[in-house]
Amino acid sequence: MKYASTRGQSPELSFSQAVSEGLAPDGGLFVPESLPDISQRLASWEGLDYPSLSFEFLKLFADDIPERDLRKIVFDSYKRFDTPEVAPLRKLGGGLYILELFHGPTLAFKDFALQLLGNLYEYLLKDSGRKINVLGATSGDTGSAAINGLLGKRNVNIFMLYPYGRISALQERQMTCTGAGNVFPIAVDGTFDDAQAVVKELFADVNFKSKWNLSAVNSINIARVLAQCVYYIYAFLKIPESEREDIEFVVPTGNFGNVLAGWLAGKCGLGVKKFRVATNRNDILCRLFNSGLYEVSQVRPSCAPSMDIQVASNFERFIWYLENGNAQKVRSIMAEFKAKGRYFFDNFNACGFSATSMDDSEIVETISEVWGKYKVVIDPHTACAFKNLDTSGTKILLSTAHPAKFPELIRKTLNIDAKSPILESLAEREIVRKRMGADASAVRSYIEENGIR
To answer: What pTM was estimated for this model as a whole?
Structure first.
């Protein structure tokens, strides 16, 4: 299978090449040339454990990697999860379920893709003699999961930008207290969008990208989206057949990659048509799906910081599908959005999406209500998924982070200490980071000083 850029001005690549490149040279995002039909495979996949299901799905897209090698890569990627189920599906009552995606080594859903991506990188570099410098930006969980996936990997250095003072203390410690020589956390003065803009500018510098073999692990990497498709299929197959006719996935999301993965699984024949985007008060996606207007506003810090985002990096892939693969139209839309900070889809078709948003007070109230009703402790991002739930059909809410990552909020709201041995072990470690402005030239110089070649 080949992978093309959403902007249509880069050569088509194999899966391995697209993973290694991350962002396409023309500034677009890689998409598969076609999507396989899995509808006739679902019956044979039912009952598979998570690693086996992941292998069966990913081999449809990674056809340039020998199946024996791919199987090992996939199975190794889920060995560090703390439950054999990997993604347990918990029934709360009636047709309401929570899909727990926080059992990986950094206690967030990002581990599903980034443990895999780290192993893919190590495999692809092993015999090539190449070295790469991974560059990314994070609003919280992506950075720690990416760093954890690449800790100590040979031939890889990772540079991760994050907005200084705008992520939780534990999220910062997960990135800055690793002690690993190949990890370079960069605290940027500004917002996540400022950090992401720096990353995109450096990837657009073709000479610099080539010289330092830059690659991306954040949600713009196609391997991440494909890996995240799997837990939607896994949850669907765990639901009794009698409850599969009317399923809605409710997905906390900021960069749009998490919910896009489910939507792509649906386009592959999963049999799910409804997806709800759940955001915090930084509601660009909520406004989009309710009005057709995609418009940037000011980022407002919230108690669900991983969604403190205005520019949803993965939305370009959705536009490509919305425009039936018309790369010229995608380029036009993205150019106008970059110039004006807004774009109105006058023929907008939500394609099964709906959206809700929550402010901080509603998040706190919801955490309290869920505990009172179900005796389940949820993190602030998961809380956003509980907005305006009705009793029709089957609702699967994605629980994207462990509540122990937000101990102060949980303690203040529920008078409960949400703990994790993984996080507690970070308390005594030294924080090592580089602080700088959101300036591409400064980050470029830092990579030149510390990159691997």
So the answer is: 0.90
